[in-house]
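User: Please run a holo structure prediction.
Assistant: Happy to. Please share the sequence and the ligand.
User: Here you go; the ligand is coproporphyrinogen III.
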Amino acid sequence: MRDLLLNALRCCNVNRPPVWLMRQAGRYMPQYRALREKHSLWEMFHQPELAAQVTLLPITLLDVDAAIVFTDILVIAESLGLNMVFPEKGGPRVIPQITTKEQVVDLPILDTRNALSYVFETIKEVKKDLQVPLIGFCGGPFTVASYCIDSMSTEPFQGTKRWMAVDPESFHLLLDKITIASIAYLKEQIQAGVQVVQIFDSWANILSLNDFHKWCLPYLRRIVDALRDLVPVILFCRDSSIRCAELAELKPACISLDSQRSMHDLRKTVPSSIAVQGNIPPELLKGSKQEIQRHIEELMHSMEGQKGFIVNLGHGVLPDTPFEHVEYLIHAVKAYLCSWTSSHKS
Ligand code: CP3
């Protein structure tokens, strides 16, 4: 087992930093697009053999240091008795949309082992001959709630913001139910074999700092507290670089940082007991190879000798990224790291 990621998450790596990418399995890959021509996204998530195959694409094609289960943050809806749709045009949605307090009160919290059995089967399938750690994940309760209430492609956050203002009590109840379901879901993923979990509270950035304290942090805290002793937990949200002091207070193993400031500067703002992940701009991968090379050299040089550093993007790989640029990035990181490792040894 290549344990670079697990060591970096414990801030005790003596070798090179690990590299993996958020959304490393996706439309930028020709092999992924070929599978998508034959199957809907819904099918790909629900068929364990297919989902396992997609999970492994970046391992085979890019030799990254971790795999992430191929599923979506919205599948949790199924453990609340809801469904999700991934239309070919427009963003994904949860159906039926949650519009009333009564619906929230009536939402069941189903046994995730049954409701999301296909995810756990995917994990078991992937684990059969995986030589790198497997990352499981869920969405942050606030982000999942906003997908339950709003159509994010046409009216993002309109209903969510109104609900928070008009009936905070039932909004808290919705967050509470999502949190309970998410903890059970992550525990079941761990039982099935994931060794790390990441929480994607992608939309936390739409909230003011005050509202972030109210609607995000308490629920993220509950999830982190419930899992900390089981596996390392990575926290991700948009604008994490300006929220990292608050995120650090939750004592996760790692914070995934966006690309707004240099990693070198950001590292100083996060306690040294917490690992940092990031923060290459996803757009960089659409530029030239020279630009990629230059950025990597600068990043790696500035972080040289730092334990608890995981190379990743500031957000997910963009769908229209040239595949060979992603390949080039991974190669450039490892090539730099080779000289890093040998200079450390000498
Ligand atoms: O990283 C990986 O390789 C694992 C897979 C993964 C997916 N979704 C599969 C997926 C992960 C980690 C996610 C997380 C996710 N899903 C987030 C949080 C991360 C982030 O990007 O902020 C959010 C907000 C979602 C909700 C979601 N699912 C959106 C907004 C979309 C459509 C837009 C898009 O990003 O393409 C999806 C669909 C989805 N989920 C795709 C994939 C690979 C698109 C696939 C396709 O169209 O073929």
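The beta strands are 67-68, 83-85, 93-95, 134-139, 196-200, 233-236, 254-256, 275-280, 309-313.
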